[in-house]
Design a protein that fits this description.
alpha/beta; about 10% strand; globular
Amino acid sequence: MTQQTRAIVLVSGGMDSCAAIAIAREAGHDLYALHINYGQRTEARELIAFNALADFYEIPEHKRLVASIAHLAAIGGSSLTDSNIPVTEADLDSTEIPTSYVPFRNAHLLSIAVSWAEVIGAKKIYIGAVYEDSSGYPDCRPEYYAAFNQLIKVGTAAGNIQIETPILYLTKDQIVTRALTLNAPLHLTWSCYQGSDKACGLCDSCALRLRGFARAGQVDPIPYEVRPEYQ
């Protein structure tokens, strides 16, 4: 019997990470789930979503890791971690870096994943990065992940750990369709930048999500304070 390749999936609890974990499961990996709190506004709600997804995919407790990098909140510079910086309303046509950008966050997330991978012998790290977001987030670009994979080769004892970005080139509607094709539990996910009881419907993340569902011809199953129609 062929041994399954161990894979760590970064699971924020959002729609994209849900699609990533569904794809990793379809690939037949032995799944480990990593969730990282960094002092974000919806930290508690995202943790609930993480555990709900891990439960759905029957990932046992010893294969889950919840880590904290709360120093990112102390550093600040983002509306996600600094309550003095308001979360701006969605502008899906903007090419400016939004206030929700957490400076160099994904490098912190991936570093933790790589450290864990070295210890447990995981060969794959899945992250639900999306190029569609890259107009605002520089750490969602393809060249960023290519460079990080090179860094892993020269900067780890293992050297053969690979970051996988299975939805990098998909649009949000394609992600919705792909996730639903894999029977991924999108109803358990949470993407809002500021709401925890109901999604606000107005932040960039809500707007991208709602537009994705609409373009996929689907109805987003999570509750919203307001549910604008994004084209």
